[in-house]
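Regression check, flavin mononucleotide case 217:
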Amino acid sequence: MLKLPQMTFSELMKGRRSRRWFDKNTPIPDSILESILETASRSPSFMNSQPWRVLVAGMQTMQRVVESLEAHQNNGTTTMPYAWPASWPAPQQANVDETRRLRAPHREEPVDLFSKWAYDAPVTVFLCLENSLNEWSIMDLGAFAMAFMLAAEEKGVHSVPQAKLVNNTKYLQQILDLPQNIVPVLGISLGYSIPEKVSNTFVSPRMPLQEFVEYRP
Ligand SMILES: Cc1cc2nc3c(=O)[nH]c(=O)nc-3n(C[C@H](O)[C@H](O)[C@H](O)COP(=O)(O)O)c2cc1C
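Current build output:
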């Protein structure tokens, strides 16, 4: 049994980072996954509407998802729930560029389709919303996603949130057997990461407080 250190909230926040190579042969026990979901379900939401719907996909389902993603990329069939940002305002563009520059030496060539899209994760969760919900519910889903990843971290389970997994909602809904009005908004790949992989060693930068905090008397 894995012995985990007790971590404070700030240690969890500082310890969490996106891991992009998991051990596909080490499954996540159902009890651990359930406990992570239970914790995340304590997230706040607009009027406690709890708009999240969670689809848990194993590797068999994800094999079909990655084949579909690979087959339908760049051929005009992209049906993302929200458009990919076409451009960024200058401060965000600078953050994107800086992160890309620092991350470049930590990128690893995938060995197959599954490592390319799913980073070999034994489990992928799709956070979904009913399609008539508005932007406030996306905020709720974001809170759920963060809580989910931190709850996972506490249990020694690593993760990476992935917009690219919801590139093609139409096909994804079919593979996941979801009704048309339930839209996957974010995929989160999770599992036990391989520490030796260089892609798992990258710690992304953050702006200093003075660049994003202002005070008024
Ligand atoms: C909404 C959202 C979508 C993301 N989509 C992807 C993705 O498709 N692929 C990927 O490798 N990382 C993705 N990420 C991870 C970000 O690149 C990562 O969170 C960011 O670079 C900061 O690094 P950190 O998570 O290690 O702190 C996404 C993160 C968020 C919050």
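Comparison notes: The helical segments are 9-15, 30-40, 59-72, 90-103, 113-118, 135-154, 169-175. Residues 17-18, 20, 99, 160-164, 186, 204 surround flavin mononucleotide (CB under 6 Å). No diff flagged against the previous build.
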